Amino acid sequence: MQYESLDHFLKTGQSALAKGPIALVFVEDDVELDNTLRHHIDLGFKSVITFMPLDFKLSEDVTEQIHRVTLTCAPRSVAFEIINQIIQAAPGVWMYYCYNAEYLYFPFCETRSIGEMLAFHTEERRNAMLSHVIDLYADDLTTHPNGVDVDHAMLDGTGYYAHARHDATGQPMERQLDMSGGLRWRFEDHIPYERRRIDRIALFKAKKGLTLLPDHTFNEPEYNTYSCPWHHNLTAAICSFRAAKALKSNAGSTFDIPSFRWRNSVPFQWNSRQLMDLGLIEPGQWF
Question: Is pLDDT at 230 greater than 90 in this prediction?
């Protein structure tokens, strides 16, 4: 189904928002479009809604399975504005958001659907789930100068850090952490300070009054917590080429980076087991 604008979608596409979980995919360029969308279709989302320019091409099999909204996802604030409108249009629905060339992984996602996982998470009285954005990058920038290579993708096996998050008065915030690591940490001189964090509340249940802020947190503090007070909860990962693309497309950084590889680079195996073994996603009480 294709919609000519966000307003058109909100007026005529309510069926796509009727039952979750739904995936919102924001397309910033024409890299990895089909693979991104197929990955999230296969996870079992009830609806996959993509926001992209009209001239970007998709395979026919993908087009038949998504809701496509014509839109240019620039400037950066556009995605947040759209998500907040959809939150108010579909209260009570579980939602997920990402960008193209990003892939959601959660514990046991090869054999369990996103709906099964969120049903368990809801039973634990959680309305949001912490996701870590794990940077992927091409093994060889000579053959893949845009930093993207799904066949030989690499990630950092170590070098992830948690920092206490503080409120405006300087006091630590309960069960909230600022996470860093990956390309944003190793090449921090090229990354604006406010964009170096790798934590994102990418899965959440919409409700009236809920607002996603430009730093990927919500206006309700409990939504930004990594777990409930009494035990560890599930977490997810968004394996993302977005930072690699940005670093290699920016004239201020591309010539300073002949390779993303370092001594702690490991091949990405495209499965949740590897992410659990590296401690990048948490199964909590879900076995």
Answer: no
